[in-house]
Each structure stands twice: as C-alpha cells, then as structure tokens.
Prior knowledge:
Blueprint: H1 2-31, H2 39-51, H3 55-95, H4 106-126, H5 134-145, H6 149-168, H7 170-193, E1 197-203, H8 207-217, E2 223-228, E3 235-244, H9 248-258, E4 263-269
Antiparallel strand pairs: 1-3, 1-4, 2-3
Amino acid sequence: MARRHLNVAKEYLLITVGCFLFSTSLNYFFISNHLAEGGATGICLIMRYLFNFPISITYLAINIPLLIIGWKFLGREFLLKTVFGTLCMSFFMALTSRFRGPTDDIMLAAVYGGLISGIGLGLIFMVDGSTGGTDIIAILINKHFDIPIGRVLLIIDVIILSVVALIFGKRIVMYTLIAKLIISKSIDYFQDGYKKSKEVIIFSSKYEEIRDRIIKDADRGVTLVKAEGGYSHKYLPMIFCITSKFDLNTIKNIVRDVDPEAFLTVSDVSEVLGKGFNPLKRK
C-alpha cells in the first residue's frame, strides 16, 4: 500500500513539473515572440493577442466541456489526473505570466520553446496524465487506435494553425510549426523511448544460480527455455528475461559475478504488455 501511494505521489509530482515547464515555455518563448500554438492553448493565445484575455482564465473556461468528455469516456482515474493537470497548468500560466524572453531570432524561440514544452508534456503523458484541452482527444484516440499521442496532437494542431494563419498571417504559423514538430518528437520519445524495455538472453552452465540471483536481486521474472548447442549437441537451459533499461546493468553485473564466461545478448523491445509492465487490458 505504501509503495502504491509513493507511485501515485511520483506521478502527480511529474505532472506538476511538466505543467511548470510547459507554462514557462509558453510565456517566455511563445507569447514573448508572438508565436502561436495549437489545441486549447492556441485558442487561448488567439484570445490574448486579440482581446488581451488572461490565458489562465480562458484555459479553464475552454476545458470544462472537454473534462466532461474525459470523465464520460476515460474514467475516474484519468479525470482526477486531468483536473489536477488543468488546474496546475492554469496556476502556472498565471504564475509565470511575467516571464518574458523576446529575441530577434524567432527561430531560436521556436526551437527552445518547442523543446521545453515537449519535455513538459512528455513528463505528463509518461504517467498517463493530461493537461486537458485537445490532450483528451489525443489520449482517447491513442487508447483506442494505438496512434502515438504526439502524432495525433500534431494533426489537430495543423488544422487549428491553418485557421490562425488566416488571422495573423503565414509567417507566425511557419515558425510555430517548427516548434510543434519538436514538441511532437519530444512527446513520442517519452511515450516510447522512456518505457522501452530490454530482452536479455543468457547461456551459462551456472544458469540456476543466475536465475535465482535475477529473481532475488533484480526482482525480475525469468523463463528457462530448453536449447541445444549447434556444435556440441548438448542441451542447456537458456535464460530468457524481459527487463526495464534501468535494471539492465543489475542483470549484467549478476551474470558477470556468477559466470564471467557466460554468453549474453541484449535486444530492444518496443513494447511489453502484461503483468509487471503495461497492462494488457485497456483501462
């Protein structure tokens, strides 16, 4: 129970940090250099540029109907994270509203703004959080059609930015699209790269000791597969293990300590579903 509470606290901390990074980037890079945005944030910026409405208030107003959709289709846990993320985002938008970083090189603003915004959103999506807005639509599509969230957001943003081009001109949209491409790639890195696992195959005459050490020290399950040497024709169990990239060094050290003569291969696994990893059933 304590471990579960710690994981929940970690998730909400990452959402908070992500909201702060995104809000800082929005005020310091986007608004300071009159860049646009996509999604609900893009609408907030349009309202600010045209009528000087506070983006924090507009953001909350836009998210009310979208939060209702999120509750109806994605459940209570998602709703709680989304409400928290939306409130955090609105709070940090107001808190960082005086952060300004105007520059003569709008390209730099687009690149750095896109990078920091992408890191912020990536942290949020990494723990299945949301900041509301079109994030809700993107996550819904991701859950049902397995299309990367970053790609969905990019498509939605292109549509919205096409409307922005009619109001503010093409130049601002061109620079904004560069930022959006960087944001999309950053989000996909956190969605796929961070959770990417490793497949480990080990051949050793001391397979029993290695198996026991991996289960005990690395807290990972293993599978023994009957294998036959192509040259020796001797049967020797092969140790098969799927682990996170953070536990990979622990397994390597175990094999190195037990049997320095062991044969070990490591491969990337793009996705792992099941007990101990991402749930196989949809939430």
